[in-house]
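Minutes, project check-in
Item: structure for the 689-residue chain
Input as provided by the requester:
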Amino acid sequence: MLSLLNLLAFLAIAGYAFYLFVNVVYTRIVFVKLGKKADFEPNLKERLNAVLINGFGQRKLFKDKKSGFMHLILFYTFFIIQVGLIELIIKGFIKGYEFPFGEGHKYFSLLQEWATFLMLLAVIYGFYRRYGEKLKRLQWQRDGKAAFVYIVLSVLTSSILLTLGFEAIMLDHEPNLTYAPFSGAIALLFSGIGSTAGTVLFYLFWWVHMVTVFSFMVFVPQSKQAHELFAIFNIFFKKTGPVGKLRSVDFEDEEAEEFGVGKIENFTQQQLIDLYACAECGRCTNMCPASVTGKTLSPMALMVKMRDHLTEKGAAVTSRSPWMPRPIFGSSIAVSGLGAQETAATLEMPSLIGDVITEEELWACTTCRNCEDQCPVGNEHVDKIIDLRRFLVLTEGNIPQEANRYFQNIERQSNPWGLNRKERMNWRDERSDIEVPTVDEVDEFEYLFWVGSMGSYDKRSQKIVQSFAKIMNVAGIKFAVLGNKERNSGDTSRRMGNEFLFQQLCRENISNFQSHGVKKIVTIDPHAFNTFKNEYPEFGLEAEVYHHTELIWKWIQEGRIKPVKEVKETIAYHDSCYLGRYNNIYDIPRQILTSIPGMELLEMERNKQDSMCCGAGGGMMWIEEKQGKRINVERTEQALSVNPSMIGSNCPYCLTMLSDGTKAKEVEEQVKTMDIAEIVERSIATVNG
């Protein structure tokens, strides 16, 4: 009779918990489906590879090795423990039950015990990391909810060992310290209590474990732990192709009521999965240049606020539909604290831009992708920010004054300063030792040299252009420039939300390239390099695209140029975001620098994939920072901390920001700032060897 009551109680609790779990998960799926359908490219091999590497391999978690090892243990011990859970459940109804593994059961028992113990250690270490070390990136979740997770996981693991330990006493078995070392130690410690007390304690801890399992099962999908359910799917369904490539806007869509995203449901379903996949680990915010310099933008907070807004809005929508299940515990997950019915009764929902996400947050982003590179679950923050900017710019016409001036100057003169477009070639006349033909002055050329607005008009960047032109002269390369026909690449306009202007410039440039038979393009600007290589092909560009460092290294290897003159400098090299994180080019610039006699390469603490943005990306070159510390000063201080005599760069924007940084720190006389092309020109022979 007691066994039957035990079974009925278990089935009732398990059934209700499973209903609640399915109900909550289902509502989350329904909320995600509020979003727009996105084009899905199968690319099954690439997607499965991403799941294996970043899902089951946990690669990104190991950017923080301590945390990575801890999560690896939690991830894999979880699966082992779930297998043991089935056996543990049956033990509550069949006394002394074991899986029919025969002699192999002792090895299963050993694996189960060690998995449980290691999970318990990992949980304790995670608690220490959050509340002992007080990691800054975890301060967002140093609250009761986080503590609850650690307590529950501790109860889950310890109750397994206690249940198994008292089972041995209940069955009057000798403690097996070889194959059940931890539960065996418990059985040995309490061996004198007798089988009756052992039976009582067995069922006590068995029920403690079951109630904890089912409670946690209901808690998971309506907390940050939802990432345990959504992360693998998020990694699988995320965009494939070039990283950071933005979705284009279809301006021919006559049914479009707005451009960009002004409502949470106007994001794509792929983008909305991100929100529930967020683990709130703070890695993104910890590396965000805006966040670390005191701006209001926190990539993690951005995701969390949009997730809660989606949940609140989804609850309001579903409560109006009688056929759709209502979310469980709605009041605990809504931003305003309202339940589903109360929220539905509210006629006006908070606006996505203004109430949920502030304009200050949106305009603080440098689009550096450091957040995305760090995210262990594959979340993409930048495209959401750009979509929100697009709404402000294209639908509302709500544009910061500096950004509006930038757009007007691009539209009128195709450069950010509004200078006369006929002055684009003036830089060529300042050096008599270089030959720079335009496309109209030569019959044929191999490379079109895209000078860009910075190289054409900015006095400091002109020196980079001149140096690279000299290098091509020495290497005997046939190249040409567009001269006054050149327009702006449109990259910055796109990142600032003006997709219409970008597409206009894009199509003009492609038409220009095609009319001159351009097959290869080289540029000193990583931003133009990225947009030509990864975004223009969608609009019809068919050309090979190179960054100038790629060709410099190629020509060094081919012997076309030879760095022979000593350049005695200790250089702190800065990785630009659009060459590095967007295009994975890290080694080539370093190989160039180490090939120069006398050059000693120094690495900053934040380098390569972890390199900090200079502060110019995403249009921030043209928008004044009004909050916190200037990003370029922070990055300059990081460079100065390794005591260089020179700071090196591969981008005219970065060089400008770092040069301003050395001036702000009043060390411009002691620490030079130079582009790789300028350094190479100082080292190579002036006559092609």
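Outcome recorded: DSSP finds 28 helices and eight strands in the chain.
No further action items on this chain.
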